[in-house]
Amino acid sequence: MRPIILGVFAAFFFAFTFILNRSMELSGGSWIWSASLRYLFMVPFLLILVMWRRNLKPLLLEMKRNPGIWFLWSIIGFGLFYAPLSFAAAYGPGWLVAGTWQITIVSGALLSPLFFETRQTESGPLRIRSKIPIVGLMMSILILIGVGVMQIEHAGHLSAKAIIWGVLPVIIASFAYPLGNRKMMEVCQNRLDAYQRVLGMTLASLPFWLLLSVYGAATVGLPSMGQTIQSLLVAVCSGVMATVLFFKATDLVKGNMPKLAAVEATQSFEVLFAVSGEWLILSAPLPSYLSWIGMLLVIIGMVSHSYVSQREIPIKLSIVKYKSV
Fold it and tell me: What is this structure's pTM?
């Protein structure tokens, strides 16, 4: 249960992303600065954490060993995750972005066949390709149904442009985030902890954020003081606290695709936290009865997902290659 609890706490802090990004858009801030400032502000906080734990040198050596791999999967896992998510906030309310983001629950499960795990057998270690966790996927679909129910009444008040630009970028982000996270877990294996991995991916993705910042300065000008402060809050709450908690949770279950899918499913609670936050901070109206039914479905799906992931589910795996370790 510890990975699930960590995942729920991560969802709470991740919800600040949707609330504050929407707040910045409503006050006239650009999505470009909402995205790039978060990661630029994350660097000093993460550096202090990793240096305090005396783990900076091993991280730098690990990054030096495979700089291209770090750059590629960090750009995908962080750049193609957060830039589209911030862009979507410019066209849709926080609840729509947070709700659509829950497709990452299914996206993560669908990515399973791209990864391998090593298992010990009587003949020696075997590399096996993971299959999509069908039972967990069914629970994920229940969560998405709940999210869909929450959005029904609101979707009718949105324009086609708001729906398209508020949804499509989030779908891209929903695949990029678990893909980058899982690939870096595969590359690092057990050599780095969650703090090191988050810092490493942040440093490796800096060229992307610096280029985006230059583009922002040339097209929309510099950010306001208000947007800078709110971006700093997003960096601390979502970029540092939430990301480290989530990476720690996924580290605890890496190699077990049903349990990994369950941890990723905890992000469904972002919808509940985002709705509450928009009501408290942005004075958004309270959800209707229909929305509360959707929230209940989300919670039932999450609890069910957690339960089935703790059981020993016989999953047939394709033996791909024998390899001595």
Answer: 0.79
Residue located via tokens 């000008």: 221
Q: What is the CA radius of gyration of the chain?
A: 20
Confidence tier at 252 by pLDDT (50, 70, 90): confident
CB count in 10 Å sphere of residue 254: 19
- Please identify which residue in the block is written with the tokens 């810092």: 199
Convert the chain into a string of H (helix), E (strand) and C (coil).
Answer: CHHHHHHHHHHHHHHHHHHHHHHHHHCCCCHHHHHHHHHHHHHHHHHHHHHHCCCHHHHHHHHHHCHHHHHHHHHHHHHHHHHHHHHHHCCCCHHHHHHHHCCHHHHHHHCHHHCEEEEEECCEEEEEECCCCHHHHHHHHHHHHHHHHHHHHHHCCCCHHHHHHHHHHHHHHHHHHHHHHHHHHHHHCCCCCHHHHHHHHHHHCHHHHHHHHHHHHHHCCCCCHHHHHHHHHHHHHHHHHHHHHHHHHHHHCCCCHHHHHHHHHHHHHHHHHHHHHHHHHCCCCCCCHHHHHHHHHHHHHHHHHHHHHHCCCCCCCEEEEECCC
Q: Dihedrals φ, ψ of 91, to 5°? A: -120, -10
> How confident is the model over 189-216, as a mean pLDDT?
93
Q: Are 86 and 34 in contact (CB under 8 A)?
A: yes
CA angle 173, 17, 204 (to 5 degrees): 55
pLDDT digits (tens, 9 = 90+) for 33-68: 999 999 999 999 999 999 998 999 999 999 999 999
**Residue whose pair of structure tokens reads 């849709």 in the numeric block:** 92
**Which two three-digit tokens encode residue 39?**
């990661």
Distance CA 285, CA 27 (A): 19
* Sheet (strand 318-322) strand order: 116-121, 124-129, 318-322
Take residue 38 and report the two structure tokens written for it.
Answer: 């978060």
- Residue 114 and residue 318: Cα distance in Å, rounded? 12
309, 311, 312, 318 alpha-carbon torsion, rounded to 10°: -20
